Fold:
Amino acid sequence: MADADKVEVTSPENTAPSQLKPASKKETKPTTEAPKKAVVEKKSKPAEKPTKAEKKKEEPIYDPWRLLRFSHLTEKSMVMVERQNKLVFIVKRNATKQQVRTAIEKGFKVKVDAVNLQHTHKGIKKAYVTLNAKNPATELATRLGMM
Structure:
């Protein structure tokens, strides 16, 4: 049993020089090159595809009544149409001045000078829309059936 427990420990000094690997040389692997592929000519794409400038998409018809609930018809609002060139609309509660302006300009094709918003005690939001002098409010009110 004593003989089996003995293990020879070899140090680098005791080994033959042929058994030692040199530390400075790296093992090099043989390089293999992949076979070159044949060059395939690409077919040219037809130039029929229009560019972004040529692709003018038609804008969908803007529906102003998504934001505007209805026009407000009172004696006071009729006087404002005739004297101040203003229209009064009841709008959704989350509507902003910019949204009301774009809804009226795009929906009715008129120029808007100013928009004022008012919250009533009943929780209704009113929009007072001042139209440009070139666009009389009486014409738009007639188109909308207010007058």
About this structure: The helical segments are 2-5, 75-83, 97-108, 137-144. The two ends are 121 Å apart (CA to CA). The longest helix spans residues 97-108. The mean pLDDT is 82.
